[in-house]
Amino acid sequence: MARTNFDQLLQAGCHFGHLKRKWNPAMAPYIYTERNGIHIIDLHKTVAEIDRAAEALKQIAKSGKRVLFVATKKQTKEIIAEKAESIGMPYVTERWPGGMLTNFPTIRKAVKKMANIDKLMADGTFANLSKRELLQVTRQRAKLEKNLGSIADLTRLPSALFVVDVLKEQIAVREANRLGIPVFGIVDTNSDPKNIDFVIPANDDAKDSVEVILAACCDAIKEGLEERKVEKADEKAAEAQAETEEEENKPRRQARRPRKDAEEAPAEEAAPAAEEAEEAPAAE
User: Fold this and answer.
1) What pLDDT does 283 receive?
2) Per-residue DSSP letters for 11-37?
């Protein structure tokens, strides 16, 4: 069953593209027609691409990997933050830090610095600083929180990138392409879909349009996370059952050993007696 439908996307305004003069010819396969100088996106293809992207995201989440959401547009910041937080995924809504993927260790150092400042504030180390020094540290902490706070728990490179407006976030897309990280993108008619692994052709400016697509994709990720939890619970239950069976079988094994020893003892005693009987006639 499709995660979205034609009417839902139409109502959200996903079909509106950019002006004809601003279009990218590479988006021609996803364009239905042109009206009043504006391209209209084929929503049947959008529905199919949302399903394809959602299934791939579900499998990524099910395998325990992370998806990084990127949207620095003013009208999409709140939506991305809300949806990503609801499923526990990292996101970037402020300026993309150059080299965030290709120079990830440096970004991690900045995140650790933020954590160290918090630690020092908690244990009272900064109590001896002057007001000016404390103000500088506080400002530094606020700046780090603003730019990197949403990726504080991202300890390794993400397994996928979900981008809203691939034209605006082209630096992030390039970094992901360079590292071989799959890119999921909401692509409008003025963008190039060439470097996007999972193209979702839709209006990337309208808040409702972005929200509908994100809701479908985040629901898929949530399903993947829940399935992973169920699988882990089943594995633990199977391991516990195996351990219980092993403990139950131990007394049985221990009970069998004395019987076996008792059976072997008469046989060992009978063997020398038989040897003596054979030797007696030979001596005569």
Assistant:
1) 45
2) HHTTTEEEEGGG--GGGGGGEEEEETT
